Backbone:
């Protein structure tokens, strides 16, 4: 009898053990203590970044992203300093700790802000990502160049702050401003070329540049865009060629520049205006060559994209805008 009872208890013990193992019987999955991530974002460096919780201490390293945070009433733990006369600092961020200029931010100063998220400019700060991640900081590397970039990144910043509705309202207002400009101009399919001059060389901007995108929005055809296949879809510029410019003979020429104005003028004289072919171009003969301002077409206009589009439209169609 004693042996029989012992066998029963052993059998029951085995059954209970089996029920505790996966596959031994029906099992209810216990809820995860971690819960779902706050957001998962693929940034412009091609990284899939998981943000586990809603960020509380955000550091921003570019002016356009800083303005996006301001647009949704977002607080900052730190920011890059605004040094250009063409960019202004929102009043709410005047006392926020600075981490250095956009082109030379200090990792030490960033870490002193104790961030749980850093919003960086992909082109300027990508090399800092490994160092920040080694220190346990989540980083998103973003590019803000085209109007689609502006809308996408403003939407993202709105989500990070829990202010999606405010971000969408701002986007709708910008769309409305741009549409109002487009409705005023004729649909005459003008062709344009966009010369970008620095003290060392002249190139032609493509649709991925700020001026190129503004021209695209207005329905202009960029004569240099045919060469985009040779340099890749993400390229902003292609080499300048007077022969190609003469062949395409654009209706309008825009000029953007970066550097000292006297050096720029000298470069344009040497590489462009000194050629006899320059004077034969339709845009030159009809006096439709326009210099675009730095604040809207070199530094990213961000929330001022409607102003950039309007500036370009008013330059070409002065008779429409009074």
Residues:
């Amino acid at each position: 009898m004693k042996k029989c009872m012992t066998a029963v208890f052993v059998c029951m013990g085995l059954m209970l053990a089996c029920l505790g193992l996966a596959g031994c019987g029906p099992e209810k999955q216990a809820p995860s203590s971690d819960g779902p991530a706050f957001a998962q974002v693929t940034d412009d460096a091609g990284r899939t970044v998981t943000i586990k919780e809603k960020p509380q201490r955000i550091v921003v390293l570019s002016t356009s992203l800083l303005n996006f945070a301001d647009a949704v009433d977002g607080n900052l733990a730190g920011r890059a300093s605004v040094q250009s006369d063409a960019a202004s600092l929102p009043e709410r961020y005047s006392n926020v700790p600075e981490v250095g200029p956009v082109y030379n931010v200090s990792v030490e100063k960033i870490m002193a802000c104790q961030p749980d998220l850093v919003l960086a400019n992909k082109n300027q700060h990508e090399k800092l990502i490994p160092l920040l991640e080694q220190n346990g900081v989540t980083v998103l590397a973003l590019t803000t160049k085209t109007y689609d970039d502006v809308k996408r990144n403003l939407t993202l910043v709105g989500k990070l702050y829990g202010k999606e509705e405010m971000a969408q309202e701002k986007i709708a207002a910008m769309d409305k401003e741009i549409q109002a400009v487009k409705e005023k101009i004729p649909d005459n399919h003008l062709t344009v070329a966009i010369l970008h001059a620095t003290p060392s060389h002249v190139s032609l901007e493509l649709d991925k540049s700020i001026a190129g995108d503004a021209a695209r929005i207005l329905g202009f055809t960029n004569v240099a865009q045919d060469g985009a296949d040779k340099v890749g879809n993400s390229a902003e510029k292609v080499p300048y060629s007077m022969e190609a410019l003469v062949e395409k003979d654009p209706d309008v020429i825009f000029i953007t520049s970066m550097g000292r104005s006297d050096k720029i003028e000298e470069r344009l004289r040497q590489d462009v205006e000194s050629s006899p072919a320059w004077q034969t171009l339709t845009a030159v003969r009809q006096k439709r060559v326009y210099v675009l301002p730095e604040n809207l077409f070199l530094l990213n206009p961000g929330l001022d994209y409607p102003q950039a589009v309007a500036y370009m439209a008013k330059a070409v169609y002065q008779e429409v805008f009074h």
The first helix runs from residue 2 to 19.
